[in-house]
Design a protein that fits this description.
The complex is a heterodimer of chains A (68) and B (159). Chain A is 25% helix and 19% strand. Chain A contains two helices and four strands, in the order E-H-E-H-E-E. Chain A has a three-stranded parallel beta sheet with strand order 3-2-4, with no helix packed on it. The longest helix of chain A is centred in the N-terminal third of the chain and has 11 residues. The mean pLDDT of chain A is 95. In chain B, a hairpin with a 5-residue loop joins strand 3 and strand 4. In chain B, the strands form two sheets. In chain B, strands 2-3-4-5 form a four-stranded mixed beta sheet. The radius of gyration of chain B is 20 Å and the shape is elongated. With 159 residues, chain B is α+β, with helices and mostly antiparallel strands. Helices cover 35% and strands 18% of the residues of chain B. Classes of the chains: A alpha/beta (68), B alpha+beta (159). Chains A and B meet through strand 1, helix 1, helix 2 and strand 4 of A and helix 1, strand 1 and helix 2 of B. Strand 1 of chain A pairs parallel with strand 1 of chain B.
């Protein structure tokens, strides 16, 4: 089950566990602004091929704009 | 959207999936850095003055007025020990000469903005409310500083 996290836990996961950040918004919104180090895989494009670049042994953190 | 993405990743066999539900709006609203093509100067956070005068509820107003005038400021924000914004002393309050506490003289619950707010939106709010500045806080209410209308208008003209 995916684990909801807050900002502090996100920073800890990146620092201590080399977590991978994935923004799931469309590319234009990612290009506009994104969290440092994040890659972009839009929700509509999430599949086996596009997620091949992710390391399955490290945590993956997804985010969008807000909780709405 | 991110919860669906998190579940989709699980369906693809990922076992260590986390969801930063509050997203980049939360990140930016705490004044944390974002990368990308957007001009950083279009956000309130780029024009933040952190050295804003502050005072406590129970302080005597005359002493605070003297301190604020000496600093050449026309606004003082009332904060608690956690630096949460409780009130504002504007020009009218700072012009009072009676011996009352800050709590009596302040305007409670002033409007605040986040560092991630568009500069144009902040200017519009200051114009509508006839304010020369706005306090900038984190989402939890902690004061970060203030943004001045003059600075913001000048910056927007130069962008």
């Amino acid at each position: 089950m995916p684990i909801p996290i807050d900002r502090d836990e996100l920073q800890r996961l990146i620092r201590d566990e080399q977590a991978q950040l994935v923004e799931v918004l469309p590319p234009d919104e990612y290009d506009d602004e994104h969290l440092p180090g994040a890659i972009n895989i839009p929700l509509k494009a999430l599949d086996r091929e596009t997620t091949r670049r992710l390391d399955r042994n490290r945590p993956v953190i997804v985010y969008c704009y807000d909780s709405q | 959207m991110s919860p669906r993405a998190a579940w989709r990743l699980e369906s693809l066999g990922f076992t260590r999936v986390h969801d930063y539900v509050a997203g980049k709006a939360d990140w930016g609203s705490f004044g944390l850095q974002l990368e990308g093509q957007r001009h950083s100067g279009t956000r309130v956070g780029a024009y933040l003055h952190a050295d804003v005068p502050t005072c406590a509820l129970e302080e005597p107003l005359p002493a605070v007025c003297e301190r604020v005038r000496a600093a050449g400021e026309d606004t003082c924000f009332v904060v608690n020990e956690q630096r949460i914004v409780l009130g504002r002393l504007g020009r009218t309050a700072l012009a009072r000469d009676d011996d009352v506490t800050v709590e009596v003289a302040m305007t409670a619950g002033p409007s605040t903005v986040r560092p991630s707010l568009d500069l144009a939106a902040a200017i519009e709010r200051m114009r509508k409310q006839k304010l020369s500045n706005l306090p900038v806080t984190r989402p939890d209410g902690v004061l970060l500083g203030l943004v001045r209308r003059d600075d913001a208008e000048q910056a927007l003209n130069e962008i």
